[in-house]
Design brief:
The chain contains eleven helices and nine strands. It is an alpha/beta fold. The longest helix has 17 residues.
Amino acid sequence: MSASPLFHVLVLAGGDGTRLQELTRELTGAPIPKQYCRLLGEHSLLEETLERARHMVPPARTVVVVNHDHLPIIGEQLRGVPPHNIFVQPCGRDTGPGLLFALRQLAQRDPTTIVAMTPSDHYVGDNRAFAAHVDRAAQIVGEHPRRVAVLGIRPDRAEPGLGYIMPSTRVRGVANAFRVAAFQEKPTADHARQLIENGALWNSFVLIFRVDRMLELIEKAAPCETARLRAATERPDDLAKGYRALAPWNFSTQVLARIPEHLVALRVDDIHWSDWGTRESIERTLHALRRVPPWRTRPQTHAAA
């Protein structure tokens, strides 16, 4: 993977982490987004994500999208990432504008680049296995550049707070790879159980694609949103005002759910993934690691200075 100059890792780190603000306030004294919090000791989730990226590409091919409002609390967490690879949004506007903001800049460098997009606020227990799965997905996209690959996690419980991938037929010649019939975002617990019984996978939101192809798909699925962001970013002197005027929109709902026929899901069983979207999901991971949750010990600061 690292031998290819056309492969990049894109880390989404601009979210506000509203679901866990109560917990991060409890730990740090402020509602700091969870990707910047050190919930496992010395490293934040963002730092762990950047370390995971190093298993796939050198720092020169790691790109990070951040939120301008978060710059004062990031501190040294972006050390090692070249400054020109840090894309600063004027503010957070959910995953749709954040991804599109980054892809437009990457397209100016090389629209044929293959990108592995990954959230910065998820837990992964095995970085090497994760990198191997991404490598396999990148090979699929390299051979079929009009496809978008997504890592699908085999569920171990009915979790209503996650997105679900409904696999269709197997991809011939590729182990544990499936075409996608549909997406279901945050079903009820009963519906989630039904989906799992029918073979559904959790959506990890780790996507591998060619930049030009993803931009094409976004343009078709969300033309109005694309046009508004283009207008906002084509005036650099007025970027902050234009960006803040954008309506937030969710990439999974607005795009992924509308393009299942273009997706390939790779089932992943061995990376111990969790989105860490709730206190309970974090406790579940820490229990498996035989670690004591930090909120059960004396309060301490886990965010960067």
